[in-house]
# Entry
Amino acid sequence: MAHPLTLTPDLDAIHARLADDDAHVLTAPDLTDALIGVVSDRGQARALYSTRRIVDALVGYGLGYDAAVEHFSAHVEVLSLGPGTPVFLEDL
# Structure
């Protein structure tokens, strides 16, 4: 069953917005399908990723659902790589 809220982001517009920003914005090339937007954090653009779509991608790479959620929580969500670090929408 499809998730009741399905966003179809304009990836070209998102990438253009990220490219236009003067500051360095970190993205995850393997998770393009999970990129859903751009947010501004005190003037710094940051990539916005869907937690649900990241978990779906991890399941697609062969992890079980619970293992994918655990991997996201332990290894992705906790990353802090400076001002351009992506943010994650909790939409599980």
